[in-house]
Amino acid sequence: MLRRAGLAAADEWPHSQELTGGVASDIWRLDLGRGPVCVKRARAKLKVAQDWRAPVERNAYEAAWLETAGGIVPGAAPKVLAHDPGAGMFAMEYLDPGQYPSWKDELLAGRADTDFAARVGTRIAQIHSATAGDDGIRARFPTDAIFHAIRLAPYLEAAAAAHPDLAPALMDLSRVTGNTHAALVHGDVSPKNILAGPGGPVFLDAECAWYGDPAFDLAFCLNHLLLKCLARPGAAPGYLECFDALSGAYGETVAKGPLPDVEAGAARLLPGLFLARVDGKSPVEYITNEADRERVRRAAGKLLSDPVSRLGDVRRAWADAL
Fold it and tell me: Residue 24: its pLDDT value, please?
C-alpha cells in the first residue's frame, strides 16, 4: 500500500513496530526513508473480552473525518498521507509522543489542565458548527449502521440488557441519538484519543465517524472526566474543573453557530454513557473496585430515572456522590 501511494520506494523494506492502546484496529509505525508514518487497518472483531464486531469499511470514514476536521481546524487531526480502500488501510503522519503526549496519560498523572480542556471543547464545537446542516458532509458519512454497531449497541443497549429496570430510558436514548442527524460526529472523543500537541488538541481514532448527534461527542468526552475521579480521587477537583471548562467552552462556541441547544441532549445522554462504561461491552480498565462500580450505577440510575437538562446538574450530582 505504501509503495502504491509513492510513500515507500520499490526496494524499501521499512522497519515496522506495532503500536498498542487501541482495540478496534491494527496500527503500526513504519520507518520510511522519508521519515516515520503511521498505518492503520480496521479489525472486524475488536480486541475486547466480549464478542464485539463492526464493519471494516469504517476505516474509510475515519480517514474522511480526519481530512474534514483538519480542513476546518488546521492541526486538529493528523494529516492523511494515503488511503487504500481496497486494502482497508490508510497512512497518516506519525506524531512523536514526546511532543504529543496523550491527554489520558496527563490526566491519570493528576495533571488537570483546565485551559487545555477548554480548547478541547472549543475544537469539538468548531467542527460541529462548521458541518451543521451540511448535506454534502452528510452524504459523505452514511454510517448509521456502523455507529449503531460500534457505539449505540455495545454501550447504551448493552447497559440496558444489564439493567432491565433502566432499559426503557437507555433504549430511548439509543433511539433518539440514532435518529438525530445534525453535524459531523467523531464518536470516540476520549482523552486516550486526544493528544496534547504544541498547537492544541489533536484528535485521533475517528472510526465511529458519523453525521449524527453532536451531543454524543460532548457527553462522551465529559463522561471520562467524571470517571477519572475514581481512578485518582486526589485529583477529582481538577477533573471536575476540566468538566466545567470543556462544557463551558463548547457551549460558548456552539452558541455562535447554527446548532440548537446541544447541552440538554448531552445532559440526558451522559448518565447512560456513564453506566455503559462499567456495564457495557467496553468497561474502563481503571475502575476495578466493585464499590466504585456500584457508585457509578447508583449515580447513573438516579439521573436516568430523573433526567436533567443542564450539564452542571450532572456534575453536581456526581460531586455529591463522591
Answer: 67
